[in-house]
Amino acid sequence: MPRLPELKLYIDGQWRSASDTIPVLNPVDESVIGRLPVARQSDLDDALAAAAKGFQVWSRTAPRIRAEVMMRASALLRERGDEVAHAIAMELGKPISQARLEVIRGCEFFEWDAGEAQRMYGRVIPSAPGIRYMTVHQPIGMVAAFSPWNFPMSQPARKVAGALASGCSVILKAAEETPSGAIHIARAFHDAGLPPGVLNLVFGVPSEISDYLIPQDQTRLIAFTGSTVVGRHLTSLASKHGKPVLMELGGHAPVIVCDDVDPQQAGVMSATRKLRNSGQVCTSPTRFFVDDKIFDRFVDAFAARAAATVVGNSLEEATEMGPVANIRRLEALTAFSDDAVAKGARLVSGGHRIGTKGYFFAPTILADVPATARVMQEEPFGPLAIINRVRSLEEAIAQANALPFGLAAYGLTHSAANVDKMVDGVEAGNLSINTLEASVAETPFGGVKASGYGREGGAEGLLHYTIVKTVSHKMSL
């Protein structure tokens, strides 16, 4: 029978409990499946001291050795993949097949960054005779990392991978709703021989933990993935204490569908991707701007694929979409749909809760949605798609850029000229053409405008975890 790992804090290489706990719920049936310890201030102080000690060891560990530890931890996570995936499915309601893919994705982050740890090259700068200038990359210090609930294993993995590969120590505050992925990561690194204090894992009241950790002298970088509102708050707090930030914030991803694609194929592909993880993805394709010539056929294909989606228990292999994560998402999605319809949108399908037990929301399609609808301005973060018609590529690009967000964007076309216009004109940190995948381990990922600052992944992904030191060496006094 699937079960969660033992829910504990991990500080200075030791697992510990706490007297105060919070419940962890299964969104499929709303049952309590575990109780998570809440870190006290003394736990945070211990984590800070441990991370400072761990940094002194890890930053002086050869990159090759760091990479070997990371690869051993990744291998352990792959071996335990089914156990990790079942925990994710139970806590988040993510279909088990998608949970298994998330575990693999998280391991790929560790494996890529382990390689990058050995390629953090400096450079020698041309200079006059008798003097040499060079730069070196050095780890920035202890990282306070905050990861979200929607990808409980791969999101913590991305932050831990970048920090450890760079030689930093980490205090990770993972999501209380879905703690098991981060616990499995800490367990794997413990078993792989990571020195005590290099990785610490805490849970609790998010605002209390961030407000305490960020001002501390030991904290040298804040790495956060989550909402724009919270990200702005943390950035403001960090700026008061002169701390740099790495922010991956919310999006509201547009999809430009040109008239030269097959609307049936594009509609099926779009609906399938939209409903992945019940639409609870910061890069989820949400605002579809479809050329008027193929609009109706695209909507029909999208709606047919959405209607055929198997919604059910996350632990059943046939399930394609589980519940949303919590009652707050149910309430928000209902409000978005009702507001759009009241303002003139056409409800093609969905717009309601499924059943009365569990947080299931029907795949929802809204067409011809006016700009005044809330869902046109705010990310729904659920299985809700907006499909609006446009009459030119220029109009589609203008609509795509109309919001202050710019994390991911997509384009479907077979025209090189259309691609060129989108590459030049779409305001997003990640633009994908003829694929609805926005991020892989080997490419940098991050947003523009209100969607964040900095990049994770790829060769660029370790830069924010390091400082650039310039060395000027005159050969004689």
How would you characterize the overall build of this protein?
By secondary structure, this protein is an alpha/beta fold. The protein folds into two domains: 262 residues, Aldehyde Dehydrogenase, Chain A, domain 1; 187 residues, Aldehyde Dehydrogenase, Chain A, domain 2, CATH 3.40.309.10. It contains 13 helices and 22 strands. The strands form six sheets. It has a seven-stranded mixed β-sheet with strand order 14-15-16-13-12-18-19, sandwiched between helices. Strands 9-8-7-10-11-21 form a six-stranded mixed β-sheet, with helices on both faces. Strands 5-6-22 form a three-stranded antiparallel β-sheet, with no helix packed on it. Helix 2 packs antiparallel against helix 5 and helix 4 runs parallel beside helix 5. The longest helix has 21 residues. The chain is globular and about 75 Å long. The model has no long low-confidence stretch (mean pLDDT 97).
Please outline what is shown here.
This protein is of the alpha/beta class and 477 residues long. It contains 13 helices and 22 strands. The protein has two domains: 9-249 and 451-471, Aldehyde Dehydrogenase, Chain A, domain 1 (3-Layer(aba) Sandwich), CATH 3.40.605.10; 254-440, Aldehyde Dehydrogenase, Chain A, domain 2 (3-Layer(aba) Sandwich), CATH 3.40.309.
